[in-house]
Fold this protein.
Amino acid sequence: MHNHLQPINLFEYEQLAKEHLSQMALDYYSSGAWDEITLQDNRAAFERLKLRPRMLVDVSDRNLTTSILGQPLELPLLIAPMAFQCLAHADGELATATAAASAGVGMILSTLATKSIEEVAAVRQNFPNALQWFQLYIHKDKGLTRALVERAYKSGYKALCLTVDAPVLGQRERDQRNEFSLPSGLQAANIATISGLNIPHEKGESGLFTYFAQQLNPALTWKDLAWLQSLCPLPLVIKGILRGDDAVRAVECGVQAIVVSNHGGRQLDGAIASLEVLAEIVAAVDGKAEVLLDGGIRRGTDILKALALGAKAVLIGRPILWGLAVAGQAGVAHILSLLQTELSLAMALSGCAQLQDIDPSLVKY
C-alpha cells in the first residue's frame, strides 16, 4: 500500500473494503437483521455516551496490558468470531490469527471458519502466548459438537465461546436477496471435514439461513451447559447475553466470562445496544465472571467507554474484515495498531495512565 492511500481510521478501511469485496460478501459482512436498527444503535450508543476526562494526571507512560481468564493481552481487545473470512482474502482466518498473535490481542475462531481449527492453532508455533478461543455453535448432531470441542481442546484453544443468541438465524434481507452461498472452492472447513455438510445454495433464500435451520439446535437450554462442560476442561465463555438475570444464571452455571452482545445487530432487530446493558450486567455478575463487550467498537474512545462501564475487554468484528479485504494480514495488523494508538491517546487525554484508572466516573449519558 502506498502511504498516501493507506487509511488512517477504521471508517476509511470500511469505505476502501467496498472496492475489494464482491457484492454478496460485502452484504453478508455488513448487513444486520430486518431494518438494521440494532446495527445502527450499537454505534449510536457509543456516540451518546460522553466522556468526563480528568486533568493534571501524569500520563507520560501508558500501560494498556491486561489479562483475560488469566491470559495476558497487550491491549484489552479480542477479535470477535466471524464466519467465512476467506470471502475477504485468500488467507482468511490464518491472516487474522497471525496479525492478532503478533499484536498480542485475542482471536476467537468461528465454528463456521473457512480455515480449520488445526490450521489456525498452528499460528501459535511462532507465538506460543497467543490467546485463541474457539467459538461454538451447538449442532443437533451431538457427535459433531463433541468432535469440534475435542479438536479445539486438543489443538490448545484456551476457552470455548458458546454463542447463545442464535437458536435460529436472524433474517438478514440482503443475504436473502443475494441468495447468499459460499463461492465454489470455499467451505466451512471445520464442519465439512466431519460430516460433509455444506452451506446449500437456495432459491430466494440465504443458504446460511437454511443451514442453520437444518443443523443448529434451537432446543438448547441452560441445562445443556453442564453437558458441554463435561466434554473438556476448558473454561466456558458465553456470548450474546443482554440481560442481568441471564448473566446471573450464567455465573450459577459456572460460566467464567460473558460477552455482552447482540451479534452485531444480526439476530433480533430492535434488541438493545450492547453498550446500554453493559453496566447492568457488570453489576449483576458482581465480579464472579469477566465481562466483555461486543458490538459497535470503531475508535479507541469506544474501548475507553466500554472499560469505564465495567468491561474487562472488548471484541472487534467487522473492521477486521475490512482490513483483511484491503490488505490481508497487513490490513488486520494496521486495524489493531490504529485501535492501540487511539486507545493510548484517549487514555492520556482522559487522565488514565493504566487500564485500572478507567472507572465509571469517566462517562455520563
About this structure: The CA atoms of residues 63 and 354 lie 5 Å apart.
